[in-house]
Amino acid sequence: MKQLLEDVKFIAKQAGDKIMEIYQDEDFEVQLKTDNSPLTKADLAAHNIIVNFLETRYPSIPCLSEESAHIEFNERRKWTQCFIIDPLDGTKEFIDRNGEFTVNIALQKDGKPILGVIYVPTTGILYYAAEGDGAYKQQSGYPSERIKVRKIKKDDELEPIKVMTSRRNQLESVRDMCQSLGNCQFMSFGSSLKMCMIAEGNADIYPKLAPTSEWDTAAAQVILEQAGGRLVALNFERFLYNQKESLINPSFLAIGDSSFDWKKSMIIPRS
Questions:
Q1: Residue 65 bridge partners (DSSP)
Q2: Beta strand 135-138 with 112-120: parallel, antiparallel or unpaired?
């Protein structure tokens, strides 16, 4: 697992370098996929770099990438493990040039994500974790540091609960969910950076009520769990991967302090 993690970290950075090369271009061309989501040559270039490397290095482990050709569930259900890849998480942020996009690579085994790497090309920051080994953050040129979620001080009414929200949707719905929490501070970011911020103790919860896909959450889930948090559906069940025909996730909560009673403290909509 240690060598595999090092390989995934390496190729995430390689993909990130290519993304930055295209990001700095004046015209990186934007297409629309069949679901009207945007696609750039950076998405495809990063996909090719990652998948070509992993298929060569680990030929027995299939790759499930956002930019892969559609793979029927009858084929996928035979996989006991696979890499789950989002070559460019936050394509809209990439197009807007706000820097809030990432490279996400996870390994799942028997439905459970057991290794995750998230690389932030614009800052050179790397988040990574493997099951049982903790979660880490590495800034370019510096040693890795272990990260942990923030504990909520239940008797400190002056300290706000920090709530992450998406940049583009559902702020009002999230506010409604959190009104019973009391003093809240709302912060908006793109891509899986929101869950990384929870893992490193800079935020407390991220409710997501709009559709996402398995490659949007797999790597972040490992990092968050190894930092002491959880990523769960609205019924508080843990996410599993490659276990159903659809790769679309249900609504979810990414939470930091697992000892805090989020279920009783929030207005959770029916899933």
A1: 85
A2: unpaired
Same domain, 38 and 136: yes
pLDDT tens, 64-108?
999 886 889 999 999 999 999 999 999 999 999 999 999 999 999
Which of residues 112, 146, 180 is at a domain's end? 146
> Residue 146 forms beta bridges with which residues?
136
Residues 137 and 224 in one domain: no
pLDDT of residue 26: 67
Among 42-56, 118-132, 174-188, 241-255, the minimum mean pLDDT is found in 174-188
153, with CB counted inside 10 A (0-12, 13-18, 19+), is: exposed
Q: Token pair of 31, please?
A: 């297409």
The residue among 123, 146, 169 that closes a domain is 146
Q: Which residues of 90-106 are buried (b: 16+ CB within 10 A; e: fewer)?
A: bbbbbeeeebbbbbbbb
pLDDT at 51: 97
Check whether 118 has a pLDDT greater than 70: yes
For 244, the domain range is 161-265
Secondary structure E strands in the chain: 30-32, 38-40, 63-65, 81-89, 102-109, 112-120, 125-130, 135-138, 145-147, 161-165, 184-188, 205-208, 212-213, 230-233, 248-249, 252-255
Determine the pLDDT at residue 233. Answer: 95
